[in-house]
């Protein structure tokens, strides 16, 4: 798993997807690209997610079995940090590893208009940050 995650980070992926029936995929510039690995089977994914003691523990497996999902973080030594969502998809396990930046980007380098940041000073109301996957919602927040 660490090899796959490292390869994804080096390729500039924002997410690495594991789902039964396909090879691991990485999201680059909004498009999913299949990685050059074997097709993931239920046994392989179970081994990656629940037999890897660095990743989950008994609590994670219990949470997936009772609620259908489990969220956590994972750090790949000297490479990257990830926000991880493990869930059930069509009865099988699946997981998405979202690559987290090492540092908080500066608002000016992101190209977000200052009018968006000025909303922070408003005393009333609700601000919704919405958009498709990979559009920058988390980064904006």
Calculate the terminal CA-CA distance, rounded to whole Å.
29 Å
Portion of residues within helices: 25-40%
What's the Cα radius of gyration?
17 Å
Structural class by sheet pairing and helices: alpha+beta
H/E series, N to C?
Answer: HEEEHHEEEHHH
Low-confidence stretches: none
**Looking across the biggest beta sheet, what order are the strands in?**
3-2-1-6-5-4
Instruction: Report the total helices.
Output: 6
Q: Would you tell me the overall average pLDDT?
A: 85
Query: β content, as a range?
Result: 25-35%
Q: Which shape, going by the Cα principal axes?
A: globular
Largest sheet: number of strands, sense, barrel closure: 6 strands, antiparallel
Q: What is the strand tally? A: 6
Write the layout of secondary structure elements.
Blueprint: H1 2-10, E1 15-19, E2 25-28, E3 31-34, H2 42-51, H3 58-67, E4 69-76, E5 80-89, E6 92-100, H4 107-110, H5 114-118, H6 137-140
Antiparallel strand pairs: 1-2, 1-6, 2-3, 4-5, 5-6
Summarize it.
This protein is α+β, with helices and mostly antiparallel strands and 141 residues long. The chain has helices spanning 2-10, 42-51, 58-67, 107-110, 114-118, 137-140, and strands at 15-19, 25-28, 31-34, 69-76, 80-89, 92-100. It has a six-stranded antiparallel β-sheet with strand order 3-2-1-6-5-4.
Structure description:
With 141 residues, the protein is α+β, with helices and mostly antiparallel strands. 30% of the residues lie in helices and 28% in strands. It is built from six helices and six strands, in the order αβββααβββααα. The protein has helices at 2-10, 42-51, 58-67, 107-110, 114-118, 137-140; strands spanning 15-19, 25-28, 31-34, 69-76, 80-89, 92-100. It has a six-stranded antiparallel β-sheet. The chain is globular, with a radius of gyration of 17 Å. The two termini are 29 Å apart.
């Amino acid at each position: 798993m660490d090899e796959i995650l490292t390869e994804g980070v080096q390729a500039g992926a924002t997410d690495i997807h594991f789902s039964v029936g396909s090879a691991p995929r990485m999201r680059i510039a909004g498009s999913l690209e299949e990685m050059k690995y074997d097709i993931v089977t239920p046994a392989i994914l179970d081994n990656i997610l629940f037999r890897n003691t660095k990743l989950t523990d008994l609590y994670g497996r219990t949470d997936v079995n009772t609620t259908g999902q489990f969220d956590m973080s994972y750090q790949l030594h000297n490479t990257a940090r990830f926000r991880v969502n493990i869930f059930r998809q069509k009865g099988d396990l699946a997981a998405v590893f979202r690559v987290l930046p090492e540092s908080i980007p500066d608002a000016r380098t992101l190209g977000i208009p200052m009018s968006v940041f000025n909303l922070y000073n408003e005393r009333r109301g609700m601000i919704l940050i919405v958009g498709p996957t990979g559009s920058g919602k988390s980064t904006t927040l």
